[in-house]
Write a structure and sequence with these properties.
This protein has 239 residues and is an alpha/beta fold. It has helices at 6-26, 45-53, 64-73, 93-99, 109-118, 148-156, 176-196, 213-218, 228-231; strands at 35-39, 58-61, 81-84, 102-106, 126-131, 161-167, 204-206, 223-226. 41% of the residues lie in helices and 16% in strands. Bound molecules: pyridoxal-5'-phosphate (PLP).
Length: 239
């Protein structure tokens, strides 16, 4: 598939920024209440560099090996912030602990413990979101809402991890109201944790993708994860 030109990326990033700004204004929220996370899976390092040159700093990747290769090519971009948002297996935790700033997909204590043990001291704590199975689908990853409290408590006791909030990938829904229901449940789950753990830095709701950004911003998203809307349709060969 032909990649986007620089001009196309400028236009799509500008319109994604405008879409986020409009959604925040419509929800009566501050212009800086949510940030754009550019999901660059399957896209080449050159496109990430272009987006960086246009001021984008936060990037999300799903596949460890693919991400490491791009990170090596982009090592000169000192202030880039890497978020791991894909399913995380035990044999990949070391690479993630050593090469990412954030992980959004922690859904088991065992994975959290490995990340904590493997996080290099000099990098400072790894920022963590717990992935919640908010649509109750058997096939999707994520922890059930009623098990969140115990996992949060365990992660909060891990010194090399900093628990920042919750992430979800709701099932696709047709209407705005249907989109908002699971996103509201994620917001309520975060509010419950904030109440239980008032000392914790729980300020992050990682939700909202290209198809449900407006619904997510209405429900309090602080980090929206946009792939297609910024970089165009995904390339065919994810690793
Ligand atoms: C791919 C992906 C996205 C981006 O999805 P789009 O619909 O392309 O915006 C967001 N979050 C996660 C976890 C993803 O895997």
């Amino acid at each position: 598939m032909a990649e986007m030109t620089d001009t196309m990326l400028f236009e799509s990033l500008t319109s994604a920024r405008r879409r986020l700004a409009d959604a925040l204004a419509a929800a009566g929220r501050a212009p800086d209440a949510a940030q754009l996370l550019a999901v660059s899976k399957t896209k080449p390092a050159g496109m990430i560099r272009e987006a960086w040159q246009l001021g984008q700093r936060e990037f999300g990747e799903n596949y460890v090996q693919e991400a490491l290769e791009k990170q090596a090519e982009l090592a000169d971009l000192a202030d880039i912030v890497w978020h791991f948002i894909g399913p995380l297996q035990g044999n990949k935790t070391r690479a993630v602990a050593e090469h990412f700033d954030w992980v959004h997909s922690v859904d088991r204590e065992k994975i959290a413990r490995r990340l904590n043990d493997q996080r290099p001291e000099e990098l400072g704590p790894l920022e963590v979101c717990l992935q919640v199975n908010i649509s109750d689908e058997e096939s999707k990853s994520g922890i059930a809402v009623d098990e969140l409290h115990d996992l949060a408590q365990a992660v909060l006791a891990m010194p090399r991890l900093r628990l920042r909030g919750l992430m979800a990938i709701p099932a696709p829904a047709a209407t705005l109201a249907e989109q908002r229901a699971p996103l509201a449940r994620l917001r309520q789950a975060l509010e419950a944790l904030q109440e239980r753990f008032p000392e914790a830095p729980l300020d992050t709701l990682s939700m909202g993708m290209s198809d449900d950004l407006e619904a997510a911003v209405h429900e309090g998203a602080t980090l929206v994860r946009l792939g297609t809307a910024i970089f165009g349709a995904r390339n065919n060969s994810p690793r």
